[in-house]
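README: folding subset

This subset contains proteins for which both the sequence and a predicted structure token string are available. Records are stored as plain text. Below is the entry for Inositol 2-dehydrogenase (348 residues), shown exactly as it appears on disk.
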Amino acid sequence: MSSIRLGIVGLGRLGKIHAMNIAKHIPGATLTAACSIVEEELEFATNKLGVEETYLTYEEMVNSPNLDAVCIVSPSGFHTEQIRLAMEKGLHVFCEKPIGLEIADIEKTIEIIESHPDQVFQLGFMRRYDESYQYAKEMVDSGELGELTVIRCYGIDPSSGLESFVKFAGASNSGGLFADMSIHDIDLVRWFSNKEVKRVWAIGKNAAYPELDEVNELETGAAMMQLEDKTIAILVAGRNAVHGYHVETELIGTKGMLRIAAVPEKNLVSVFNEHGVVRPTSQHFPERFQEAFMNEMKEFISCIKEKRQPEVSAFDGLQGTKVAIALQQSIDTNQIVELHNQEVSYGF
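--- output ---
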């Protein structure tokens, strides 16, 4: 099969990562088109990546006869509509998380996806493609940790980005801390345990920027979740890690435990200087998950060529969003929230 021709929508920080990977690092893929409402981003695609077709609207781009697939990296609120339109145009779809923000809209989108079984759909839960997480998953699946009892996840962005987020929060809706950030950790909990979340309780605090209270956003949040087999999951999400980008996962089982990135090390270098012995740490997500972003896109291209579906499905996106919504409801109501099949309810 010849090279897969992709169009990308959204060329912000994450969009640029996917665009550069497709253009320069993914065998069997060609970045043919780019869509953005920002002229400078289209100039970047043309001048830096050699993209031949640029568009100001997504509808125009998916009508191009020169595309086999699209990569959706637009704001979250556009994802479901853009997925549906691409599917109806006969295109394969890679979409960044979350799949959507409203349950009914996601379910409608899944119906469209399932009505096109010959087209590949993949959701961007890139941590599943990180070498360390895959190693841990193999240990869990082989029974080396025994039965899982506790899963603890930290996902904290560097404090260097907090001030800009405060400005963003005053003008836009991020979907909330848990939908915006913990969605990856929610997916990891489901992935490692092979179980669904049944009950959640979430709390939060704004310390560095109390003004986030006024726009119903959180600087730091924590949650306790009970899975359907009573496994415990603990989430900590935040936007104020002074030392850098902190993503850490701990798995505790009846036969042992493991930690992934307990220290978010940048590399294997130790610096000995007037500050003592220092281990450099990752400062942002493109640095920490560089290989994972490339691996997930390689998998997307392989699935198209091999005519198979990836492990990460639209259903995974639906379940993750359900949990994120329940966590936000728990924050808003200060109550435990129960997840029963398709609905959520309150309980004590």
